[in-house]
């Protein structure tokens, strides 16, 4: 998308506003499927938690994607978007047995990462095949908050608990139809995937009725010019060879599955904000925008980098700015950034705003969550309205304190 197109969207729909480029999502999906075209059956399950707008889900459905869900609400959203139950995998953590049973009744693929829950579910529902999430004890990911496969992680069943796992399966007579892992997000080194794959293949040899092996995701995308990223093409060649060799040894063709979220939608997203004020202090020039970590928490939560571009003045002289929000706490989007000269009223564009941005937005400070727009077939389509004050109070219930006032007066 061009700066002029983004500026027009900010003008038409106001700011702040999230914008997603459908063409970029499709290109990323095609890139991933092309990288693994050497396997007989490939299944891409988009991680709904990254960006859960129903129009995004419907678009991914047209590309042939399935979905990876982590809550019963995401399952219902996927069904509403037109996905069939068999296109949905449910990979929760720490949810109740009731929620897992509700998901099973809907016919989706169940993925369990807890020995206690596995035993309870298998005892009650031995005829429902389930997938097992394994913790390979690999520290991987761009940040401790998104590294989920290490020994202290709450996710997955430890590879050291395989004997216990097999005993549960033998006692319940349940069927395991899939093995799954996810080591973390923003993984750069493909050797991490290849090493973890060996652990997963070794684990898979203990199960005789597998239909698929799920490698999760965590591919790193570039966040700025010249940034490094996961080499999907090289990973595709090397992992395909290992996977096909394992299938031959196993005695049947299995499905190779991935659950990308950020890889598919991160670069497709732009977040547009308007500059409320330029504030010079003794040491810093602040560009203060009409948003904050209520709308985009990743820089404050993960220390993530988002390129910030002044699309109102793309050819202006570069100066150093610290871009901050309007929340009544420190909400710094970028420190000392070289940005084309900013004046009040300019529109700034935050790049890589497609994944874990709107989906983590809140109403902190009683601010409205922004609108969302999808750029599709050369036109802007509003896919979520900006919230209003009615949205803030619609679920609040007011208590009648009028009698308390009267009693206070009488007591005097």
TrEMBL record:
Residues that coordinate or bind pyridoxal 5'-phosphate: 218, 356
Entry cofactors: pyridoxal 5'-phosphate
Enzyme class (EC, first level): lyase
This protein's record includes keyword Zinc: no
Gene Ontology terms for molecular function: diaminopimelate decarboxylase activity; pyridoxal phosphate binding
Name of the gene encoding the protein in the UniProt record: lysA
Residues modified to N6-(pyridoxal phosphate)lysine: 49
Residue stretches making up the Orn/DAP/Arg decarboxylase 2 N-terminal domain: 24-266
Record note on quaternary structure: Homodimer.
GO terms, biological process: lysine biosynthetic process via diaminopimelate
Protein name: Diaminopimelate decarboxylase
InterPro entries hit by this protein: Ala_racemase/Decarboxylase_C, DAP_deCOOHase_LysA, De-COase2_C, De-COase2_N, De-COase2_pyr-phos_BS, Orn/DAP/Arg_de-COase, PLP-binding_barrel
């Amino acid at each position: 998308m061009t700066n002029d197109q983004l500026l027009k969207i900010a003008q038409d729909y106001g700011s702040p506003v999230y914008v997603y480029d459908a063409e970029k999502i499709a290109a990323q999906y095609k890139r991933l499927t092309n990288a693994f075209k050497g396997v007989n059956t490939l299944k891409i399950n988009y991680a709904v938690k990254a960006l859960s707008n129903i129009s995004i889900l419907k678009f991914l459905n047209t590309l042939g994607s399935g979905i990876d869900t982590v809550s019963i609400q995401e399952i219902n959203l996927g069904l509403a978007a037109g996905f069939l139950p068999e296109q949905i995998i449910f990979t929760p953590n720490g949810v109740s047995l009731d929620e897992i049973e509700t998901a099973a009744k809907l016919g989706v693929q169940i993925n369990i990462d807890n020995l206690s829950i596995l035993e309870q579910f298998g005892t009650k529902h031995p005829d429902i095949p389930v997938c097992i999430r394994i913790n390979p004890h690999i520290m991987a990911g761009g940040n401790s908050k998104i590294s989920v496969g290490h020994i202290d992680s709450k996710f997955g069943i430890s590879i050291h608990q395989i004997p216990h796992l097999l005993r549960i399966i033998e006692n319940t007579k349940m069927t395991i139809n899939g093995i799954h892992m996810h080591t973390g997000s923003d993984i750069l080194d493909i050797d991490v995937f290849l090493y973890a794959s060996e652990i997963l293949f070794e684990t898979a040899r203990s199960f005789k009725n597998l239909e698929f092996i799920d490698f999760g995701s965590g591919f790193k995308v570039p966040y700025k010019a010249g940034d490094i990223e996961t080499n999907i093409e090289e990973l595709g060649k090397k992992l395909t060879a290992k996977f096909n060799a394992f299938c031959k040894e196993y005695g049947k063709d299995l499905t190779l599955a991935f659950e990308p979220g950020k890889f598919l939608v991160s670069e497709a997203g732009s977040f547009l904000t308007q500059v409320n004020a330029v504030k010079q202090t003794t040491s810093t020039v602040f560009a203060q925008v009409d948003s904050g970590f209520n709308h985009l928490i990743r820089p404050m939560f993960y220390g993530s980098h988002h390129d910030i571009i002044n699309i109102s003045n793309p050819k202006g002289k570069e100066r150093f700015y610290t871009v901050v929000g309007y929340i009544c706490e420190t909400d710094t989007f970028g420190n000392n950034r070289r940005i084309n000269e900013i004046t009040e009223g300019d529109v700034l564009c935050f790049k890589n705003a497609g994944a874990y941005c709107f989906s983590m937005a809140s109403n902190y400070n009683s601010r409205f969550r922004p609108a969302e727009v999808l750029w599709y077939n050369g036109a802007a389509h509003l896919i979520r309205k900006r919230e209003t004050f009615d949205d803030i109070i619609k679920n609040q219930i007011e208590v009648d304190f009028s009698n308390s006032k009267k009693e206070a007066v009488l007591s005097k």
